[in-house]
Amino acid sequence: ALDTFNTAVVSPIYYVMFTSFTILASIIMFK
């Protein structure tokens, strides 16, 4: 149960962090 919960929580967080980093990099590049 713990492994399933861990995966279900970490995956979305990792995806959001990756997306935010990509957007941030794009903003820096356009500046």
UniProtKB/TrEMBL annotation:
Is-annotated flag, keyword Kinase?
no
- Can you tell me where the transmembrane regions are? 12-30
Which locations, inside or outside the cell, does it occupy?
Membrane
Task: Give the signal sequence positions.
Answer: none
Bilayer topology reads: Multi-pass membrane protein
Listed Pfam families = Mg_trans_NIPA
This protein's GO cellular component annotations are: early endosome; membrane
Q: Where is the major localization of this protein?
A: membrane
Q: Mind telling me which InterPro entries this protein's record contains? A: Mg_trans_NIPA
Keyword terms, alphabetized: Membrane, Transmembrane, Transmembrane helix
A GO term, aspect molecular function: magnesium ion transmembrane transporter activity
Q: What is this protein called?
A: Uncharacterized protein
